[in-house]
Design a protein that fits this description.
The chain is of the alpha/beta class and 525 residues long. 42% of the residues lie in helices and 11% in strands. The chain folds into two domains: 69 residues, no CATH class; 380 residues, TIM Barrel. Helix 6 crosses helix 18 and helix 11 crosses helix 12.
Length: 525
Amino acid sequence: MLRWLIVLGFWIVGLATAAAALDGSPWWLVVALPVLVLALTGTYDRLQRGHNVLRNYPVLGHARFLFERIRPEIQQYFIESSTDGTPFDRETRSLVYRRAKGDPDDEPFGTERDVHAVGYEFMTHSLRARTAPESIPRVRLGGPDCARPYDIALLNVSAMSFGALSANAIEALNAGAARGGFAHDTGEGSISRHHRKHGGDLIWEIGSGYFGCRTPVGQFDPDQFAAKAADDQVKAISIKLSQGAKPGLGGVLPGKKVTAEIAEARGVPIGQTVISPPAHTAFGTPSELVDFVVRLRTLSGGKPVGFKLCIGSRVEFLAICKAMLERGVTPDFVIVDGAEGGTGAAPVEFEDNMGMPLTEGLMLVHNALVGVGLRDRIKIGASGKVASGSDVVKRIIQGADFTLAARAMMFAVGCIQAQACHTNRCPVGIATQDPARAQALDVPDKTARVHRFQKATVASAQQMIASMGLDSFEELEPSMLHRRIDGVTTRTYAELYDWLEPKELLDHPRGSWRHDWRAADPARF
């Protein structure tokens, strides 16, 4: 309302001075014309739907776009100066923005990456390149114990809760997922009315706070869970063990942010601070975790159930593998969250120093499941800075079956990485519960952007494997991804890393795995 009053003020001053110019001195036009231009600009900014910044900051918001036009490096400064320790480079961010808007992918003057830099990665193409198939790839979530499998898309919306994101942001993400046929992970904040409004497929994430299925004292409530999991919109359930942004920490939701809507979704009292414990109370050992997976699968009527984690200790994940073998059951999927991922506010020291990066964590999980002979029963998702078709292809080479993106999806709905998520003053209406700020995010416009970004990114990944001379993503292998290790040498992932043979850990674990395998205990983490 205040913004409209300011615009109205410009109109009043402009029209009054214009009237004074007509009735008296024409010099009043010197004041009237600029003020009327500002009034027109402010009115346009408030009514347009394409730019969140201009809706929240009429007139003043044009300064940001002016700087971008004057010099591209200024745009890079504004974004990179406000990111975390592992920002997307400008080329990747620009790619996301272009795809979301439906603009062409091509840019003049080629790559901005230093191809001679240590760590530079590239994939091999083929002289018998093919045309990308028109069919949309899907991955089936559902092992032998799953009665209601779900065919998930290659790229999906990663976990971001209502509460962390505004109602409009949640609606745009879910409506985009509904339009494009991909999944939307709810985050640990449970299922809100905004997740349900547009009917997009949901992965219901169950965190240590058990939001949406908790007793008054914060324990798991099976009856509430069964009632919500029965909803056909819920396609899969993910148990959050840890997350990339703050591995080993629970969440704190200040009481002032616990609005009536958030309290309704999470099943907590309005206005009271909510603390999620750092670990689950429904289970305390790897064997109990596997039993909990079975329990949720039964309560949900046979829907796919898995868990998400940022890898810390290899021994602990191997202990989970031993528990699967001991119990004779498996989750339907495991989502690996990289320590470099995470969109939520978290302690800087945790972001920079705790948890395993996605590349190492993903290959560890893949190898462990291969080594115990369970890889064919369990699908692996990769979540952490997935923003392009090449990211999707690389993660599949490293061991994933499907991917999820959080930060890139936020870019698609207008995020400029102002790093104000924890202040409730997000300038583009995404990470805020302030209605005046959230209204800047136009749901229909951003729905289309989310859909376009996901569709274009999957199409790019399909074209890449076709350019590699392959017919499907299943044909990808570690020898197809190269990394520069010094100024003159590159090695493939097949050469750089150990890749276990099926059931190798059961038969004769190699030296680099032997100690951890023996130390793994399904009775304790």
